[in-house]
Amino acid sequence: MPNMDPKKTPMPEQEPLVRARNFKEVSYGYTAEQAVNEAKRCLNCKNRPCMTGCPVSVRIPEFIAKVAEGDFEGAYGIIKSTNSLPAVCGRVCPQERQCESKCVRGIKGEPVGIGRLERFCADHMRDKQPDPEIPTPNGHKVAIIGAGPAGLTAAGDLAKLGYEVTVFEAFHTAGGVLMYGIPEFRLPKSIVRSEIEGLEKLGVKIMTNMVIGKVLSVDELFSMGFEAVFIGSGAGLPRFMGIDGEDLVGVYSANEYLTRINLMKAYDDEYFTPIKKSKNVAVVGGGNVAMDSARSAMRLGAEKVYIIYRRSMDELPARKEEVHHAQEEGIEFRLLTNPTRVIGDKNGQVEAIECVKMELGDPDASGRRSPKVIEGSEFALDVDTVIMALGTSPNPLLRMTTPGLETNSKGTLIVNENECTTKEGVFAGGDAVTGAATVILAMGAGKKAAAAIDDYIRNK
Amino acid sequence: MYKILKKKQLNEQVVLIEIDAPFIAAKAEPGQFVIVRSDEKGERIPFTISDYDREKGTITVIYQIIGASTMRLAQLEQGDSILDVAGPLGVATEYAEGAKRVAVVGGGVGCAIAYPQAKKLFGMGVTVDMIAGFRSKDFIILDDEMRAASSELHICTDDGSYGYKGFVTNKLQELIDSGIHYDEVIAIGPVPMMKFVCRVTEPYGIKTLVSLNPIMVDGTGMCGCCRVKVGGKIRYACVEGPDFDGHQVDFDELMRRNSTYKEHEARHICRLTGGVR
Q1: Mapping DSSP to helix (H, G, I), strand (E, B) and coil, where does residue B138 land?
Q2: 3-state secondary structure of B254
Q3: B117 near B130, Cβ under 8 Å?
Q4: Does residue B218 sit in helix, strand or coil?
Q5: Do the chains contact at B217 and A259, CB–CB below 8 Å?
Q6: Most CB atoms within 10 A, among A95, A123, A150, B239?
């Protein structure tokens, strides 16, 4: 008999006001008993609507059936066969817009906690995995640029097919946005490291400190014997608003703020990385990056942290759970509000941010209601730090140094339906192609590209 | 890991290291930089490459012990290894086309970066006047190297303990006043020095290139920390620089933003030295 509880089995979490002051993971994850209980809410629908919402086509009802039987190893095997980073996806996918949005149980209650179950399986099996069988080498070499979600997924899939895969990473650590962007309290770095170690056990070689486009060009990779190249170089430089005062001391891009905290561990006094000890912080933007920045600022000891977003709660692009967690932790949401300038003191330090109130007008071409300024509604918030979380424009290094690699007007790489770029043998996916998007979409692209690369090399 | 093949103290605060980094040495050009992380807990510090040897596969970095992270780096000796070195980053210097005579101006440890510029230009057959400024005689570095890489070397000291007494800007002004025509001036040193060199050259319309040193984190075009204002627009020194047209640079903003972590630095230095510097 399925468990007909209309609500998801709650996942134990740190108390909001406690966790708002530490960098430990927010949620503890399900116990085996809670996982089985939640798995029993799945109706095992014949037409598997949930699977259509998954960019990497995890066989969701099948794995959940295994969890319900208590066969966690079997469940993990099913997930892992199509998803190379389940511990990551279970934590950071926007399930409410993907698999869980299609769940039949969601019609008259909450959908099955698919993400929570995926996470449970991965965590449960973390220390219990036998070393993978190393596939028989097929004698072909592929280069991957960027060790983020797209590159790691492509690397894993190609290694399983027997390719000799080398991943070139610009930073000192592999993981991309999983290491520099998403905070420890949402995605512990030890989990990312263990997923990467799994790939290394498959034979994937990772070379750090290799900024391709500078130290080696794409053409040089080909002359080194790589037969295909996958570009997963990720998102690039931050956008700013273009308002007065963005050059003041105390204005950060979210990329910089989060990189200092996550990659460079500024929250740990053992590390030398400096970061501003802020009292009042304004984060501008409404995506996951904005939530991560705001919650990190709170954890670094800020007294007041505001999210400033020009549309309303309904349009907030962040993952629902993150918004909910941020609210619980005391982040103040100033919605329908837009900054007009950052105000500095005589030393050039941020002192306040001036904003205007907005109202939503008619839907624009994208179907979203466009915000309009309410005249005369200016007001100022006293803050000493402003973090701009407004998205990014693509990293220019590869397009500047690779003849034949074309980009569109926004600077993102042009690819066809098989993730193939305008340069022969060069494939691309993730934020370098889509602009800033999600981990799972990048993984989906990496997966597709791996299949296309296999096809390309076979038919060469 | 990147082995330190040679280490030499150039003066009390300035250290030269030659690092085994064949991939970087194969591509490095004057004006480019590397990001160095000495150990697991250190910062990513940008250093302009001051020399490279493609055959030996080495690069040379000259740095000033100025803060906590450079102090930690200075603890590594010849034979030790640096954890991370990434590069060559940034755009190589693009010299004015057809230049016949160029003044290369270096200030303090900035001479370590100005020197390869002089060397490259001099090697191309350009007449190079090198103007190198130091606080006093004890701080002079690379005088032999700079002399060999220039048509004429003018060493200036603030206190007159060696060479010309006065700032590099005074010397540059004198040279211009004496009727020398410069096709280009390259200025590398402390931000105020670069700012005032630009003030000297601007009335004459002499193209002036400066190498900016904003605070960086990743150095590869991701974090946006190194943004500078050039010609009223945001530019990123790590991927669009570090060289920019000095007459367009907002030096005051750069100075302000470079002071962001002064207090933090002081705290970490205390921890390393027990309060003694």
Answers
A1: helix
A2: helix
A3: no
A4: coil
A5: yes
A6: A150
H or E element, residue A381:
strand A379-382
Count of structural domains, chain B:
2
* Cα A65 from Cα A178, distance rounded (Å): 29
Extract the tokens encoding A137. 């080498």
Q: Is the pLDDT of residue B91 over 60?
A: yes
Cβ atoms of B126 and B152 within 8 Å: the answer is: no
Distance CA B52, CA B217 (A): 24
Using DSSP's 3-state secondary structure scheme, residue A8 falls into coil
Q: Which residues contact B49 (CB under 8 A, 6 or more apart)?
A: B24, B28, B30, B32, B33, B34, B59, B60, B61, B87, B88, B116
Distance CA A151, CA A145 (A): 7
CA within 13 Å, CB half, B177: 7
Q: Smallest Cα–Cα separation from B83: which of B129, B125, B35?
A: B35
Contact A210, A168 (CB under 8 A): yes
Domain boundary among B47, B65, B89: B89
Q: Kindly report, residue by residue over A51-82, the tens digit of the pLDDT.
A: 999 998 999 999 999 999 999 999 999 999 88
CATH number of the domain where residue B176 is located: 3.40.50.80
Nearest residue of B to residue A211, measured between CA atoms:
B87
- The beta-strand segments (E) located in chain B are 2-9, 14-20, 33-37, 45-53, 58-64, 81-82, 84-89, 101-107, 127-134, 152-157, 164-165, 184-188, 207-211, 227-230, 233-236, 243-245
**pLDDT on residue A460:** 85
| Alpha carbons B187 and B211: distance in angstroms, whole number | 7
Residue found by looking up tokens 């170089």 in the block: A233
Across-strand partners of B235? B228
Dist CA B7 CA B19 (whole Å)? 9
Return the residue in A212, A260, A272, A385 with the most chain B beta carbons within 10 A, the one to mutate for interface testing: A272
ipTM of the complex as predicted: 0.92
B267 is a domain residue: no
Q: Which residues pair with A83 in a beta bridge?
A: none
Distance of CA B153 to the CA centre of its chain: 18
Distance CA A351, CA A336 (A): 22
- Write the CB contacts of B204 (distance below 8 Å, at least 6 apart in sequence): B176
Q: What is the pLDDT of residues A120-178, one digit of tens each?
A: 999 999 888 778 888 999 999 999 999 999 999 999 999 999 999 999 999 999 999 99
Burial of B98 (0-12, 13-18, 19+ CB in 10 A): exposed
From A100-104, A393-397, A443-447, B59-63, the region with the lowest mean pLDDT: A393-397
Contacts of B222 in chain A (CB under 8 A): 180, 234-237, 255, 259, 395
Say if residue B77 is in the same domain as residue B15.
yes
List chain B residues with CB under 8 Å of A208. Answer: 84
Question: How do residues B156-194 score in pLDDT, each as one tens digit?
Answer: 999 999 999 999 999 999 999 999 999 999 999 999 999
Q: Do A209 and B265 touch (CB under 8 A)?
A: no
In chain A, residues 388-407 whose CB comes closer than 8 Å to chain B:
395-397
- Taking the C-alpha atoms of B23, B29, B32 and B33 in order, what is their torsion angle to the nearest 10 degrees? 40
Helix, strand, or coil (residue A184): coil
The pLDDT tens digits for B196-255 are 999 999 999 999 999 999 999 999 999 999 999 999 999 999 999 999 999 999 999 999
Supply φ then ψ for residue A354, to 5 degrees.
-95, 135
Domain of residue B118, residue span: 101-211
Same domain, B9 and B105: no
Which chain B residue's Cα is nearest to A248?
A: B257
Last residue of one domain, picked from the residues B170, B190, B211: B211
State whether B122 and B160 are in the same domain.
Answer: yes
CA distance B270 to chain A (A): 12
